[in-house]
C-alpha cells in the first residue's frame, strides 16, 4: 500500500515539475522567437524603407541593447517582486514590443519597439534560468537549464517557419506581430506557476515555501531537508559589488562568467541566425524561396543539435563539449570563408554554394551542442553564493552587449573586409576559444556548487575549481 502511495506522490511531483519546466521554458521560447524573426523580416524591411547596411544593423542590434538593459533591471526585479512576476512583466513587454514593431510607420519607431522587445528578452534571459535552477533537482540542474536553451532553439525555428509562410507575400509586419501569440499564452500560464521557494523563504514566507517544496517532492522529508538548506543559505547575505571590489577570487569568477559569454557570442553563431538570408544570398542562393528554406533548415539543425547537449552535459562533461564545439565551428567557418572567396573571385565550381550552406549548418550544430547551452550552465555554477546574483547579472549583461556588437558589425565587416575574410576572422576566433577553454574553463560535472566555491576561494586556478 505504501509503495502505491509513494508511486502516486512521485508521479504528482513529476507532473508539477514538468508543468513548471514547460511554463518557464516558454520564456525561452519568446527569447528564440525574437532572435529568429528578424532574420526573415529584415530583407523586406530593408527593401521597403531602402535601409543602408548600417541602418539594418541598427534594427538588428537595438534588441540586444534593450536586452542588456533588461538583464540589469531583472537582477533587481527578481529579488524584489519575485521570479514569477518578473517573467510576467517580461511577457507583457514582449506583446507591447511586437505590436509596436508591426505597426511602426518608420525605422525609428521600429528600433524603439525592438528596444522594448529587448527589455522583455533581457528580463526573461536572466529570470527564467534562475527560476528553473531553483525549482529543479540538483542532479538534473544541467539538463533542465539546457532544456531552457532547447526552448530558445524551438522559438528560433518557429520564427523561421513563420517568416517563411509570410515571405511569399512579403508581409513583414505580420512576421513581427504573430510571435506575440505565445506571449499571451505565457501570461495565462504564469498565474498557475508557484513562486520560487527560495524567494519566498527570503521574504520570510516559510509556510508558502514549504507548500511549494511539498508539491515538488514525493517525500516530505526531502522537502523539509531542502527548506532547511534554503534557510541555511539565506544566512549568507548577497554582497556582490562589495565582494567584487574586495575579493580577488570573486573577481576571478566574474571574469570567467564574462569571458564565457563573450566567447559564446563571438563564435559568430548569431551572425548566421540574424543574417541567414543575407549569408545564403552571398553564397549564391538568389531566390527568396531558397533563402527562406535554407533558413528553416538551419533552425531545424539548431534544435536537433541542442538535444546532443542535453544528453551529454551531465554525462560527458562541460569542457569536452566546449572544445569539440569550438573546433567544429572553427573548421566550418574556415570552409565557408574559402567558399566565399571562390564565389567573390567568380570562378567557383557549381557545388560551392551548396558546400557553403552545409558548412553553415555544421557551424550551427557545433554551437547548439556546446557553447549555446553549456555557457549558461557554467555561468550558473561558478559564482560564489554571496555574489551569485551579481555575477550572473554581469555575465548575462555581457552576453547581450557582445551580441549587440556582433549584430551591429557583420554587414560592415562584409562591406569592408569582404565575406571570405569575415568568416575567416570568426574561424580564427573559434580556434582561439579552444585555447581559452583549455586555459581557464573548469569541468563542473557532478561537482557541488559548494565544492566549486571552496576551490575558488582557496585560490585554485580557474580551470581546476571543479576538481
Fold blueprint:
Elements: H1 2-49, H2 53-80, H3 83-102, H4 107-135, H5 141-167, H6 172-178, H7 181-190, H8 197-202, H9 206-216, H10 220-234, H11 240-246, H12 248-265, H13 269-274, H14 276-282, H15 288-312, H16 318-345, H17 352-368, H18 371-381, H19 388-407, H20 410-417, H21 419-440, H22 449-457
Helix pairs in contact: 1-4, 1-5, 1-6, 1-7, 2-3, 2-4, 2-19, 2-20, 3-4, 3-6, 3-7, 4-5, 5-6, 5-15, 5-18, 9-10, 11-12, 12-18, 12-19, 14-15, 15-17, 16-17, 16-21, 20-21
Folded structure, characterized:
The chain has 467 residues and is mainly α. Helices cover 81% and strands 0% of the residues. Helix 1 runs parallel beside helix 5 (141-167) and helix 15 (288-312) runs parallel beside helix 17. The protein is globular and about 70 Å long. The model has no long low-confidence stretch (mean pLDDT 86).
Note the total helix count: 22
**Count of beta strands:** 0
Radius of gyration: 22 Å
Helix content: over 70%
| First-residue to last-residue Cα separation | 44 Å
Along the chain, the helix and strand elements come as HHHHHHHHHHHHHHHHHHHHHH
Structural class of the helix and strand makeup?
A: mainly alpha
* Uncertain segments: none
Strand content: under 5%
Mean pLDDT over all positions: 86
Silhouette: globular
Largest sheet: none
Write a short abstract of this structure.
With 467 residues, the protein is mainly α.
Give the tags.
467 residues; mainly alpha; 0% strand
Amino acid at each position: 500500500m505504501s509503495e502505491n502511495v509513494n508511486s502516486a506522490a512521485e508521479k504528482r511531483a513529476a507532473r508539477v515539475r514538468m508543468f513548471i519546466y514547460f511554463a518557464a521554458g516558454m520564456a525561452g521560447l519568446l527569447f528564440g522567437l525574437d532572435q529568429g524573426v528578424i532574420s526573415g523580416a529584415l530583407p523586406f524591411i530593408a527593401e521597403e524603407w531602402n535601409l543602408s547596411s548600417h541602418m539594418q544593423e541598427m534594427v538588428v542590434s537595438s534588441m540586444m541593447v534593450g536586452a542588456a538593459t533588461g538583464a540589469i533591471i531583472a537582477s533587481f526585479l527578481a529579488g524584489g517582486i519575485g521570479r514569477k512576476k518578473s517573467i510576467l512583466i517580461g511577457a507583457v513587454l514582449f506583446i507591447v514590443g511586437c505590436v509596436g514593431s508591426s505597426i511602426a510607420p518608420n525605422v525609428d519607431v521600429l528600433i524603439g519597439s525592438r528596444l522594448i522587445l529587448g527589455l522583455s528578452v533581457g528580463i526573461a534571459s536572466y529570470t527564467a534560468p534562475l527560476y528553473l535552477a531553483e525549482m529543479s533537482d540538483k542532479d538534473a540542474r544541467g539538463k533542465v537549464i539546457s532544456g531552457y536553451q532547447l526552448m530558445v532553439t524551438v522559438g528560433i525555428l518557429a520564427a523561421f517557419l513563420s517568416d517563411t509562410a509570410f515571405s511569399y507575400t512579403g508581409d513583414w509586419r505580420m512576421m513581427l506581430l504573430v510571435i506575440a501569440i505565445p506571449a499571451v499564452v505565457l501570461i495565462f500560464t504564469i498565474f498557475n506557476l508557484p513562486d520560487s521557494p527560495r524567494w519566498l523563504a527570503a521574504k520570510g514566507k516559510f509556510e508558502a515555501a514549504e507548500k511549494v517544496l511539498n508539491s515538488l517532492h514525493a517525500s516530505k522529508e526531502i522537502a523539509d531537508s531542502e527548506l532547511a538548506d534554503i534557510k541555511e543559505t539565506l544566512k549568507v547575505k548577497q554582497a556582490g559589488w562589495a565582494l567584487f571590489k574586495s575579493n580577488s577570487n570573486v573577481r576571478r569568477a566574474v571574469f570567467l562568467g564574462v569571458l564565457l559569454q563573450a566567447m559564446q557570442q563571438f563564435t559568430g553563431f548569431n551572425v548566421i541566425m540574424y543574417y541567414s538570408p543575407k549569408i545564403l544570398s552571398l553564397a549564391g542562393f538568389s531566390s527568396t524561396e531558397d533563402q527562406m528554406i535554407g533558413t528553416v533548415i538551419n533552425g531545424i539543425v539548431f534544435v536537433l543539435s541542442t538535444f546532443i547537449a542535453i544528453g551529454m552535459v551531465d554525462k560527458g562533461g562541460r569542457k569536452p563539449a566546449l572544445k569539440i564545439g569550438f573546433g567544429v565551428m572553427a573548421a566550418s567557418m574556415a570552409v565557408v570563408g574559402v567558399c566565399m572567396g571562390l564565389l567573390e573571385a567568380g570562378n567557383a565550381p557549381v557545388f560551392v554554394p551548396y558546400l557553403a550552406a552545409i558548412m553553415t549548418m555544421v557551424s550551427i550544430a557545433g554551437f547548439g551542442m556546446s557553447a549555446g547551452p553549456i555557457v549558461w550552465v557554467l555561468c550558473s555554477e561558478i559564482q560564489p553564493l554571496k555574489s551569485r546574483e551579481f555575477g550572473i547579472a554581469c555575465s548575462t549583461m555581457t552576453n547581450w552587449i557582445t551580441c549587440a556588437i556582433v549584430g551591429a558589425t557583420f554587414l560592415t565587416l562584409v562591406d569592408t573586409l569582404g565575406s571570405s575574410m569575415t568568416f575567416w576572422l570568426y574561424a580564427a576566433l573559434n580556434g582561439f576559444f579552444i585555447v581559452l577553454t583549455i586555459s581557464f574553463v573548469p569541468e563542473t560535472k557532478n561537482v557541488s556548487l559548494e565544492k566549486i566555491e571552496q576551490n575558488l576561494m582557496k585560490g585554485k586556478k580557474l580551470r581546476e575549481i571543479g576538481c
